[in-house]
Amino acid sequence: MNQTYAVTAVTVVVLATVLIGALGLRISRTTSDFYVASRTVQPGLNAAAISGEYLSAASFLGVAGLVLLQGPDMLWYPVGYTAGYLVLLILVAAPLRRSGAYTLSDFAEARLESHTVRRFASLFVVGIGWLYLLPQLQGAGLTLEILTGSPDWVGSLVVALVVTGAVAAGGMRSITFVQAFQYWLKLTALLVPALFLIVAWFGDNTPRATFDAPAVFREHTSVRIDDTVRIELDAPITLTVDGKVDGTSYEKQRVALGEGTHRVESGTRLGFQAGTSVPETKEHTGTGTSNWSRPLAGDRDEYRLYATYGLILATFLGTMGLPHVAVRFYTSPNGRAARRTTLVVLGLVGAFYLLPPVYGALGRIYAPELALTGDADAAVLVLPERLIGGVGGDLLGALLAGGAFAAFLSTASGLTLAVAGVLHQDVLPARGVGHFRIAAVMAVAAPFGVSLIATNVPVADAVGLAFAVSASSFCPLLVLGIWWRRLTPPGAVAGLVTGGGAALTAVLATRTGLPSAGWAHTLLAWPAVWSVPLGFLTMIVVSLLTPSRIPPGTAATLARLHLPEDLSERRRGDGPLRELRAADKRAVQYGERRVVPQGEQDGRRGKRRARTDAEQQEARPDAEQQEPGER
User: Fold this and answer.
1) The predicted structure's pLDDT at residue 173
2) Cys-Cys crosslink for 389: which of 125, 288, 380, 393, Cβ 3.0 to 4.6 Å?
3) Which of 330, 363, 372, 329 is nearest to 211 (CA)?
4) Each residue's pLDDT tens digit, 161-176
5) To which protein family does this belong (predicted)?
């Protein structure tokens, strides 16, 4: 790939992000602007923004990498990512908007009238956000490393700086424009090269390989092993070795390796003949960060059905609890707009997910060595050079590089905004826009530090684990909080800790390689099958055991969540003034003067004028009954 073209494309994406973010900076003045864009984002723009931040590194690079490694079983990832919005549409979207909250923590506190529930919800928002931010930063590092040969931390640093600046400068209003632009950029960046790659594949006269056939080297291929690995051979092969295999050093010698497992040291270069099957890699050896590179999908063949259900549950139910997705529904003007937004998102996300499997399938044919080197996530970036080459391949590769960077920036922006909102409200001692900017720096600094230590995490795997934690914690809280009036604060806390904590523990155990095989490993690698029911069951049982703790305002809160806005306003009597007063109260709490739009000012003057006229009318009969002297 031509480095000049690729770096130029990445630079253009970064500059466009900064310039579009500056547009939001000009009109972001209040706390409401920073958190929810003053709740004025229309469905079309909001849907593009949601799709832009949702389609992360796992979508742009990771799905293709998993298809390359594991074959068609991995198509459940895009299916689950898309179907999650259908569940969100049916159960959560409109009530969540009607809650009038800024964040998931605000919703938890408003529904259950408990600061304790809010603190636990905030803890999980930050944990899920950081777990999701990590693969975005590492994906950026991988992309710049492939494009320029720079250390992987450089790409992570670039994304961290750009995202922090955009979020701190303009908040939600700024990020909305940025993410909507980046969705269309990502769709174009995948669609245009895919069309050329398919044409090139049809024009290739070599024998066709079936989609689910084992990957083979189409020509003599030299592969450098950067990390010590164990490779599994189903049949004896002869290859050229320059380095150390099974403890023996070789210098560009032909070596026959028998069936079984072989240890290949880092820095070794292996030469494979055309037609040789690509060896499967076993878990990485050693201690420390090397274990982080072991694919989550290991052992799927042994417990395929269970792993598939674990993936489906995590992706179907985890979407609603992702902090950067949930916060965007608070920006809709009303519940009806939130539902329309979700319908449009289903179409936009579904269209996008038709493309990554194409790259994964072509990668199994034209870039099979990536399965051995551990760089399967790079398949999207290297295919134009492999199939097309020349200036055309360089230009298409540059377009893909720009789209990949847009994926990192858009998702990282949404996550940073969501985490910063929680840190701003619940961690920092003072409020206001200035402290929100400090919270934005804190939101990015922690995952960036971890990305320097925990390298080579498969991006789709890491995102899948974040989905599992989200499904096990916020899915029970949102579903029961919206649809079950008997939920109590102790039940909510117990469910968050039990379900979410169990999934988080499984994530940490999986990442550290304990246990390494068998049913125990599979249960921990795909925890949603048992952790989601555990979260629901715990919330229900504890709530039933604590009926006296049902919040006194539950009936009114549920009426607000489920009644259309016009009906709930008539029921409350003073209509939208309650929401406006709540916004004013929050603005005072954050140490700001809320800028009231002219329409709201006119509405308030009309309310006051009507009340004044009514009071005068009531007072007039009394005055008429008085004697002239008394007047």
Assistant:
1) 65
2) 393
3) 363
4) 888 887 776 556 677 8
5) Belongs to the sodium:solute symporter (SSF) (TC 2.A.21) family.
Cβ-based neighbour number of residue 450 at 10 Å: 16
Q: In the Cβ-directed half-sphere of 519, how many Cα atoms lie within 13 Å? A: 0
DSSP H helical segments within 58-151, as ranges? 63-70, 76-91, 93-98, 104-112, 115-148
* Percent helix / strand / coil, the chain, rounded to 5: 70, 5, 20
End-to-end CA distance of the chain: 93
Query: Rounded to 5 degrees, what angle do the CA atoms 395, 195, 205 make?
Result: 100
Q: Give the number of other CB atoms < 10 A from CB of residue 621.
A: 8
Cα dihedral 159, 186, 7, 177, rounded to 10, equals: -60
Q: Return d(Cα 204, Cα 383) in angstroms, integer.
A: 14
Q: Measured between alpha carbons, how far is residue 561 from residues 94, 170, 251, 404 in Å?
A: 8, 29, 71, 38
Name the DSSP class of 498.
I
Length of the chain: 631
> CA geometry: angle at 37 spanning 36 and 39, to 5°?
70
- pTM given for the model: 0.77
- What structural domains and CATH numbers belong to the chain? 3-201+290-547 (1.20.1730.10), 221-277 (no CATH)
Q: Which helix (H) or strand (E) element contains residue 262?
A: strand 260-264
Tokens matching residue 125 = 């928002």
| Cα distance between residue 65 and residue 146, in whole Å | 15
Number of other CB atoms surrounding residue 631 within 10 Å? 7
Interatomic CA distance for residues 150 and 593, integer angstroms: 46
Beta bridge partners of 269: 224, 242
Q: What's the angle, vertex CA 419, arms to CA 413 and CA 422, rounded to 5?
A: 140
pLDDT digits (tens, 9 = 90+) for 150-208: 888 888 898 888 888 877 765 566 778 888 888 999 999 999 999 999 999 888 776 55
In three-state form (DSSP H/G/I as H, E/B as E, the rest C), the secondary structure along 49-65 is HHHHHHCCHHHHHHHHH
Q: What angle do CA 134, 305, 298 make, to 5 degrees?
A: 45
